[in-house]
Amino acid sequence: MTIVTHAGGMRFVGQGASGHDVVMDANEANGGHDTAARPVEVLLSSLGACTGMDVVSILRKSQSVPTAFRVEITDERATEYPKVLKRIHLAYVVHGDVPEEWLKKAIELSLTKYCPIANSLAGVAEITYEMRFE
After folding, report:
1. Which of 42, 50, 79, 95 has the highest count of CB atoms within 10 angstroms of its CB?
2. Quick check: pTM over 0.85?
């Protein structure tokens, strides 16, 4: 079970089965104190971590671990409320000797099979990706 508790102002603290807190707040213009990430930022960060963990795990199994790795996420939202996510673009940025075809396979497996967040959002938003080697 996940429980989200109001902590004053517009600050909320979520706690899932792991027992770890996820703190969220609004900016001052929306009644918050700008002390934590916004809920949609947390959602997008969760997507990045979910697919990123899949990709690293798959690459480890193939003995091809990047020396550094990150997922950069840009989004486009509807202009009208509820301002849903319309498009999400993931840029997988890899350092190290990782074969491009292995990275592509790992990303596609994550986005189509393993990451529950990506698969849930895919029914709502168009998800695209790119790979960059630095």
Report:
1. 50
2. yes
